[in-house]
Amino acid sequence: MNSLQANFLNETHKLFMKSKVVACFVVAVIIPVIMAFLIALLHDKAGVLAVDPAGFPVFILGGFTAILLPLFIFMWTADSFAGEVGDNNLKIVLVRPISRFKIYLSKIMSLGLSAIILLLIILLSTFSAGFFLGGNISSHLSGLGNGIITYTAAVVPMLSLVIFAAFIAQFFKSSSGALTTSIFVYIAARLLPVVFPTSSKVLLFSYTNWHEMWLGNLASPEKLIYAFLIMFSSCIIFYALGFYLFDNKEL
Amino acid sequence: MEKVLEVKNLTKLYKNQRGVKDISFDIYKGDIYGFLGPNGAGKTTVMKTIVGLCRANQGEINIFGHNITDQFEAAIARVGCIIETADAYEYLSAQDNLKIAARFYESVGMPRIDEALDIVGLRPYMNEKVGTFSLGMKQRLGVAAAILSRPDLLILDEPTNGLDIEGMADIRNMIVNLAREQQVTFFVSSHLAHEMQLMCNRVGILNNGSLIKEGAIVDILQQYPSLEQFFIEQAKNSREGSIDEQFAG
User: DSSP 3-state assignment of B184?
Assistant: First the structure.
């Protein structure tokens, strides 16, 4: 097993052994169930169907990608980088036969994999919970089809957030500082277009709902490519800067 | 004799200008080389630079002929170490901590993990989370992690820190036995002259960031009643030398 593979397995092992990560997955299962129950209750009591069964997975994804997924990603990434510096644990891997480049890359890969697994769990949970909303099997399957497309598209902005959060974490020796700053920057960047509307076109954080461009009447290929390039170039910049800081870190 | 560690003109200064200056020494296969010096002398700084935890401002470090800057993975592949504190993931068990380390080495499997835990006396506690361990148990786990891959060079920064008298004796005996029977090379630091005298065959005296003297323990003890006396003499000479330099300047 080469050192990159070894540390990728190690980072993933460590991540899934943390109770706060497991708690995030539990939340990801519970929230769609609760939302489906509430929507069904509203339909029963008031006759209003807020979300149809086919649109339920995408409806839930919108809420997750705007708020909960970024929060979880920032928390896991802060722990993985700044948290390990604060706990004196980063040393453990730095003295093993693996370069800092591979350590950084394997941490990002493991966090990315965790985000993908989380998206998969949310998709399965929303699909299952959607049966509370009634409807026939074909509408549920149609919803699942749309869900697969949109949840796959959502991987790109979520991976971008992992790389951004890893960059922020390099400035801190504790996970709380890194987490707070990531959240603050995220909120500020989401609010900035209110004051400077054109900024939304170039900010990575404006595309956390990129999955919506893949629905129904698809956005033009140019818009999709433009959004992808913004995220991709942001990833390159944040990855390079983050790795530079990580490589020069002294313990 | 095979040169295991070569340090040439190593200088590492922190922002407060404290650190080490122009350190050069070599360690050969089978040596138990001790770094003796008071707290703040620079022992840990040198060790951190050797294993890549910080970068030198100047100088060169080669381990088994591989440069630590250009060929880090090859240089560190045959090295085990404890630097400053024996660290572990507290939310994992002792065994899981060693599994994490073992993944980097093809030759290390579960039998070796169990063997390492046996050597340090932690086998009965292998499934307990490290967060529940005492300082001495964490130190033992650190030793287990360091010896896990059967390294040819072990770099141990104050390895008996936190251990009781029996624990200290166990570590000393382990070091001496591994060096004698398996030709493992040791680079050990301590501020306790007596401990160095019991373990090491060669010693380097570090004070105020400089390597002021090196020598074989056997030769030193022919001239001085103890290593402690030798250290005191060298430290005194070093202080007088620097005072003379100030006056000459």
Answer: coil
